[in-house]
Design brief:
single chain, about 270 residues, alpha/beta, eight-stranded mixed sheet, six-stranded mixed sheet, 14 strands, about 35% helix
Length: about 270
């Protein structure tokens, strides 16, 4: 099969535990792009927090795309224009804030290039470190959020957050998309947003078939694109449930798992 696109989650997939792209992986992805294959980044991260990685992989030179906020925004990385956007209304954001208070979990969202929260916490600090974004503590979340937002994050100890996730998936079914990207990150987006649906929008724009796409990820928020793609790949460090639903399981993020996929399924067809 001649694949035309490979879609990559970032954290714990493309990046090692040291938050870098290995040299082998970078070389493989640049070679794939030289062959005309689109390398697309798909992450729960805000768009701003994907720029450095996109620049490192030269996505602007190859006219590629980034799917940020779990697919809530698709950006043409050559023009920096958004070709798709699906948001939560201000009213939905305020309602989710109240729900977070009810369940006694931390919450934050994104306004421009800042992370907005009422209460600093270790989990929001992790998000700040991962994204490079400034954390802005405000006295009133609802007063500060006066426009549509792409995503809210609820954050807590993984055991407690797993319980909240189950409750909210039932309560908000059909209204809000609820899924964990990390054990302590619960992502809340428009019900029409997930990486699989966003990927479908992108291939329609580009005229690429579903079976010509490889998608690689490790988290539960990657499952929609893993199941959608012609070849869905789970990282070796992914939970067993995700591995069971993938077409192929590669090595871990610390063992050049992405490079292995590119070499095996793309470069070997050169």
């Amino acid at each position: 099969m001649n694949y035309k696109m490979i879609v990559l989650d970032i954290d714990d997939t493309l990046l090692t535990d040291q938050h870098v792209i290995s040299q082998r992986t970078k070389e493989a992805l640049l070679k794939a792009q030289d062959m005309g294959v689109k390398v697309v980044l798909a992450s729960g991260r805000p768009t701003f927090a994907m720029h450095k990685i996109a620049e490192e992989l030269l996505l602007h030179d190859y006219g590629s795309y980034v799917l940020s906020f779990n697919g809530g925004i698709i950006t043409d990385y050559q023009t920096k224009n958004n070709v798709y956007e699906c948001t939560l209304t201000k009213e939905q954001a305020h309602e989710l804030y109240e729900i977070s208070k009810k369940h006694n979990v931390f919450v934050h969202t994104y306004v421009e290039n800042d992370i907005i929260t009422e209460q600093g916490n270790q989990y929001t600090d992790i998000e700040g470190q991962l994204t490079g974004m400034q954390i802005k503590e405000v006295s009133s979340f609802t007063e500060h959020v006066q426009n549509d937002v792409v995503k809210l994050l609820m954050l807590e100890d993984p055991e407690k957050l797993a319980q909240v996730e189950k409750i909210l998936q039932k309560e908000l079914e059909g209204k809000i998309s609820v899924m964990r990207s990390k054990p302590f990150f619960l992502e809340l987006t428009n019900s029409e947003v997930d990486k699989g649906k966003s990927l479908n929008h992108l291939i329609q724009i580009l005229g690429i078939r579903q079976d010509e796409v490889i998608a690689v990820g490790d988290g539960y928020n990657d499952l929609p694109m893993i199941k959608f793609a012609g070849l869905g790949v789970a990282m070796g460090n992914a939970p067993e449930e995700i591995k069971q639903q993938a077409d192929y399981v590669t090595a871990t993020n610390n063992e050049d798992g992405v490079a292995e996929v590119v070499e095996k399924f793309i470069l070997s067809n050169k």
